[in-house]
Amino acid sequence: MSESKRIWATLDPFFEPGPVLGRKVANTKFLRALLTADPYDEYRFFLGDAGQTRGLRAHLGKIAPGMIEAGRARILDRRELPRRLVAEPVHCMHLSDCITSQPHAAALRNRYSRDIFPVTGAIHSLSYATFGGQFLRHLWPGTTRRDAIVCTSRPGLEAVGRFFHWLRQGYGLDPERFPEPALAHIPLAVDTDELCPADPREGGASGQKNGGPVRLLVFGRISHHSKMDLLPLLRALHRLVRQGMDPASVALTLAGWADDGDDFLPTLKDLAANAGIDMSVVLRPSEAEKTALFRVADIFVSIADNPQETFGITLVEAGAFGLPVIASDYDGYRDIVVPGKTGLLVPTIGPDRTDDIDLLAPLTYDNQYHLLLAQRTAVEIPALAEALKTLVDSPDTRRAMGAAARRRVEAHYSWPAIIARHVRLWDDLWREPVDPAPLREARHPQAMPYAEIFGHYPSRTLDPSFMVRPGATGEAFYRGRDFPPLYSGLTGTIDPDIARKLVFLARKSIDTASLIRNLVDSVPGMDHASAASHVLWSLKHDILERI
């Protein structure tokens, strides 16, 4: 780590307006926690459009007031990235997901940055049919052991490892020639000051709050094709009623997001009514409403059965509120719940083969193949009923588990602790040995070589032997009597002052090879590609002309 200033960089705003989704919430909270901890000298956001820039600027004004004005949080045009990396290396680059840009960010780093800094990205949902191609992009000669995918759960980490194993087998890729990034496990977190029991001294659930029935809370996406099918929960409650449980002894609240016009909710309501269970539905609750729901609940229930789920942030939120959890023994849920101490895990049974879905998934919509997958994963209803009975019947058990869940969240899932783990990861990745030399010219196989593929379109390509001299516009431009327009899309990639320097360097006529070499030598941070771009732009605008 030879940089004098520790700069954290990203290509993402970590802030997205619109519908509330787990990925959006996780990214927004991460950014706020990072800037609150403030472990770096500067934070650079290389964004791709003006809308993102406006949104992030307003967001930073709320969560990190003064950072932009002080020059410590900088929002830059992504097209400036090559020049910025040449001029000043960064300490690390972290992306809000590992799917969209991470391998190409590493390729850009390899070419332009003096130091091979860590490039990392996080996982979210992993089960989309297109992700095989996305993970394949990570397997290329320019990947280094300073690159890492941050996995929020241990099952998610294992799934990413299985992705790479499957791709290597399918494409016959040699691990030595096509290395993969490192895999690191760092979970998501919550703000334990914001999310806490109504009376923090209680440390958790303490029997039926406000008297009356034991309140069961389900919070999340209410959809049978996304995250979880809730029919097994209604079946388990109906089973308990048939076994003698008074249906008035429990009340069920479903809260979160549902698709408009979905026939799933009416089905759940009919099942609850048939069992005599009091069930209420709260759609799209505000943060204040969400907090109120958690604070009046006695038991949190989440029975994920869908590979879209990877971590399970709502389980951590429930623990922060001091609630015991009943959850399916599935994916990242088993990382969060300590069976018998912070909650109960219900066994699940899944398929050993999915050949038909494997072939159908690339040809169908996400919700269609996810529904097919989820309907082949069974949450065992007898065990779910027994878990519900255990906690409904015992206020003392609920109280003890809720208090233990709160302590576990404070110790393992608070944002200060999680940000510290990210900082350690970025520092540790610097210790991985890297030989920069072979990386410099390594080309990513999915970064299209436009000049090679489309070089036959123009009459000729830029030849080193071309002789050029100042054009008519160039002479006037050099003397300040003409000002060629610079389109907004070229800001940061074309510098008019450099074009003016080209006029001076070509004043006695010169071949383009010498002109480019002289420009590189005379402009700090200039490289051959940027110099050639300035020559071509100058030819386009009559600043230079070919002899």
Question: Tags for this entry?
Answer:
Rossmann fold, single chain, seven-stranded parallel β-sheet, six-stranded parallel β-sheet, 547 residues, alpha/beta
CATH topology of the largest domain, what is it called?
Rossmann fold
User: What is the average of the pLDDT values?
Assistant: 93
Order of strands in the sheet with most strands: 3-2-1-4-5-6-7
The biggest sheet amounts to: 7 strands, parallel
Radius of gyration of CA atoms, rounded to a whole number: 29 Å
Number of strands: 18
Percentage beta strand: 5-15%
For the record, give the distance between the C-alpha atoms at the N and C termini, rounded to a whole number. 48 Å
Supply the helix-strand structural class.
alpha/beta
Helix content: 40-55%
General form: elongated
How would you name the CATH homologous superfamily of the largest domain? Glycogen Phosphorylase B
Uncertain stretches of 5 or more adjacent residues: 202-207
> Please, how many helices?
22
Q: What is the CATH domain class of the largest domain? A: Alpha Beta
CATH architecture of the largest domain: 3-Layer(aba) Sandwich
Q: Kindly give the count of domains.
A: 3
